[in-house]
Each structure stands twice: as C-alpha cells, then as structure tokens.
Input
Amino acid sequence: MGVAIRTAGDGDREMVVRLLDEAFQDDPVSGWIFPDEEYRRTTHHKLMAAFTEIVLAEGRVDVTEDGSACALWMSVPADDHGDGDGGTDDDGPAQMRRDVDPENERVELIGRLTAGIHPSGRAHEYLWMIGVAPGRQGEGLGTALIGPVLDRCDREGLPAYLEASSERSRRLYERLGFAPAGEPLALPDGPHMWPMWREPRTTGSRDGLDG
Output
C-alpha cells in the first residue's frame, strides 16, 4: 500500500492534536492520567496539544497526507537524557502540569517516570508517540508512517527508542525489531509501560504495525 507522508508544520497543529486526542482517548496510560472518562473527554486534548507543541518546536511530526496518522519523533544526541516531557530540566514535568491540568499530579508524574527510564549515552531517534485514527487502525498505516525513519536509522547506524503503552502495541513494535529495554514501568495503581530499544538493522523486513 502506497502511503503519502509529509512533515507537519505549524498549520497542522490542530489536526495533529485532534488526531492524537482521538487515537489515545482509550489508551491505558491516558486512562490512568485522566481516570474519569467524562473529564478525559474534555481535558485530554490539552496534554496532546502540549506534546505537539514540544515536538513541532524541537523534533519532527510526520503525517500521512490524508491526516489519518501521525508520528512524533525527537532526535536525542549522545549523552543526553531524552526527557519524557520534552524538557531538559527538572521543571519540565512541573511546567507541563501547570499548562495542562494543575490539580492533576499524574500529568507531572508521567513525565518524571518516563524520563527516569529513558536510556542515555547513545544518540538515537525517540518515537514519542504514534497515533492512527480509530477508524483506520489495522490498515498498516503505522508501519508505513514510521518505516522511513527506521530505514534511515538502519542506513545511519542509529538505534531507536520508544515506550509502548499497551501489550498490543508492545507486540507490534517487536515485529519492527524493538526489544525490551529493562523492566516494564509500573505506573502507581495503574498500567505498565514497556521501554523498547531497536538496534539498527543491516538486513531484514518489517511486518505491519496497526497503530
């Protein structure tokens, strides 16, 4: 399946936020951050907007031409710690909380916990998150979207890193060459997240990622 992909710009911000909001409404980690479903429906988009702003400014957002899927990437240099909140200092998660939902300590905690497990020491590409429109999942859009970046990683000898937020996504990422990078992160009274690392490949093929 041929999928047209382009790099998102500032004019795509609302589209990307809407797509991520829809794609992650029922994600286990989103459900942990915003456990009340009704509240999540009205507030979750603010967290997705904060993520989008950071990556548009400091990384790259790839989107399918039809707006059905997007991937948020950050290039992490050697010896840098890829903070889960996108910041470079301890105030990043606290600032995220202030901007998104000041009374919700889990907005801050998720940033601190993911930053704490993020590997350091080697330059790598960090797949912060990938979202596929609910009605389009299962079509292989995820693989088509992130495949070019993984191909570049293979050519340039760069590893890649991500945190899978569900068992299903963990299994799908394993098909693309990602392997566990340490023990799963157990969120307090919540689900697990799986840190995953992918060494660059010299040969091999990839199966489908549904997104």
In short: The helical segments are 13-24, 28-33, 37-58, 91-100, 105-117, 141-156, 167-175. The chain has one domain: 5-198. The longest helix spans residues 37-58.
